[in-house]
């Protein structure tokens, strides 16, 4: 009975996750093209120039390789570890193809520098933590210890923090709007409730791209908002509402608001409507009654909605890309660049793994809060 479900979960959930995780630590470029060299150089002490046996293995690998694209991947990978490898390997491949027994030092004196051989040794394994470290702006130094990258080398950690901050702002904005809206929807009945719920569900029936494009029209310099503000005399010049953080948070709030309203509404609709009246009859101020009675009872919906909005927003791509500026791009834009712009799938997988870990941590936190709240009730 459950076999189809298990098959579905395996194909569309477990397998993609395993693929992403394995790709994030996979680096087979060098070991696939230079298998003999990778095997021989694994036990090299890294002190002096490698033995002739290791150098002969490199010659043999270069001669047997017929895939120029794969060799190009090897050259790019090695050049990222040691500058100068691009010209060195280009010169060496031509010389070794012409004479398989040529001495590498005679081809280029740089082969006498152990630093170039260390770069090959560092990338010889099929598995590496380089991409995971780079996703956090870390790297291994010459001694193998984990160190911080230079400020101009990478900005992934800054982008991740920016993603969390924008997601937090969107979550807070949805909460400030969604909580009173859900309270209003739960306090009425009939066509009024249907109208309020239909209004908040309407964005879910429209394409995300269409909704984002609509906000681009509304927020632009000559858009509806600026025309109204200028028309009633509040401002004399158009406000900058697009290609900045404000526009991103506003558009994300519009898209994500249903995910905040619905969980809160589902909890509030089960709360007896006479509790606030009972609190008022006992002398409680409306604000005090809300803080001491209604808000604690709705907290499970608030936590669920906040978690759902935050987890959804950290993976947003279209809205920040179209409405945000250069300093408003989120981690999904960086993942898209590595996947489609530079074809660095391992780096894209490593950054995706960071998002996966964040999501799992949030889900674990939510489970803990739910259990704690359940015990307190």
SSE inventory with pairings:
Blueprint: H1 3-24, H2 29-33, H3 35-41, H4 52-64, H5 68-81, H6 85-98, H7 104-107, H8 114-122, H9 130-134, E1 138-140, E2 146-148, H10 156-187, H11 191-201, H12 208-219, H13 224-231, H14 245-268, H15 275-281, H16 286-313, H17 318-323, H18 331-341, H19 345-376
What is this entry, summarized?
This protein has 377 residues and is mainly α. It has helices at residues 3-24, 29-33, 35-41, 52-64, 68-81, 85-98, 104-107, 114-122, 130-134, 156-187, 191-201, 208-219, 224-231, 245-268, 275-281, 286-313, 318-323, 331-341, 345-376; strands spanning 138-140, 146-148.
Structure write-up:
- The chain is mainly α.
- Helix content is 70%, strand content 2%.
- It has helices at 3-24, 29-33, 35-41, 52-64, 68-81, 85-98, 104-107, 114-122, 130-134, 156-187, 191-201, 208-219, 224-231, 245-268, 275-281, 286-313, 318-323, 331-341, 345-376, and strands at residues 138-140, 146-148.
- A two-stranded antiparallel ribbon has the order 1-2.
- Helix 3 packs antiparallel against helix 4, helix 15 packs antiparallel against helix 16 and helix 16 runs antiparallel to helix 19 (345-376).
- The chain starts with a helix and ends with a helix.
């Amino acid at each position: 009975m459950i076999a189809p479900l298990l098959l579905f979960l395996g194909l569309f959930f477990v397998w993609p996750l395993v693929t992403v995780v394995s790709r994030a630590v996979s680096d087979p470029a060098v070991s696939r093209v230079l298998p003999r060299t990778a095997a021989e150089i694994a036990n090299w002490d890294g002190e002096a120039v490698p033995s002739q046996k290791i150098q002969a293995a490199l010659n043999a690998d270069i001669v047997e390789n017929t895939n120029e694209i794969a060799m190009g991947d090897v050259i790019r990978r090695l050049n990222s570890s040691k500058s100068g490898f691009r010209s060195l390997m280009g010169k060496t491949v031509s010389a070794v193809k012409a004479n398989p027994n040529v001495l590498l030092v005679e081809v280029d004196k740089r082969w006498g520098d152990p630093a170039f051989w260390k770069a090959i040794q560092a990338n010889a394994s099929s598995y590496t933590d380089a991409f995971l470290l780079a996703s956090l702006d870390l790297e291994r130094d010459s001694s193998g210890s984990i160190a911080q990258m230079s400020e101009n080398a990478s900005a992934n950690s800054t982008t991740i923090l920016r993603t969390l901050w924008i997601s937090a702002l969107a979550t807070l904005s949805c909460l400030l709007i969604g909580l009173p809206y859900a309270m209003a929807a739960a306090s009425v009945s009939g066509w009024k409730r249907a109208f309020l719920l239909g209004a908040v569900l309407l964005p879910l029936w429209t394409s995300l791209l269409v909704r984002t494009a609509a906000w681009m029209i509304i927020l632009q310099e000559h858009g509806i908002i600026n025309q109204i503000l200028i028309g009633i005399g509040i401002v004399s010049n158009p406000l900058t509402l697009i290609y900045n953080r404000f526009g991103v948070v506003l558009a994300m709030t519009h898209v994500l608001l249903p995910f905040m309203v619905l969980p809160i509404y589902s909890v509030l609709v089960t709360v007896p409507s006479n509790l606030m009246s009972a609190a008022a009859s006992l002398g409680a101020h409306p604000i005090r009654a809300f803080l001491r009675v209604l808000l604690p009872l709705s907290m499970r919906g608030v936590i669920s909605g906040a978690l759902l909005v935050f987890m959804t927003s950290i993976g947003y791509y279209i809205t920040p890309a179209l409405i945000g500026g250069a300093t408003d791009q989120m981690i999904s834009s960086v993942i898209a660049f590595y996947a489609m712009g530079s074809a660095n799938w391992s780096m894209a997988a490593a950054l995706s793994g960071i998002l996966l870990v964040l999501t799992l941590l949030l889900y674990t936190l939510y489970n803990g809060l739910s259990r704690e709240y359940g015990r307190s009730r």
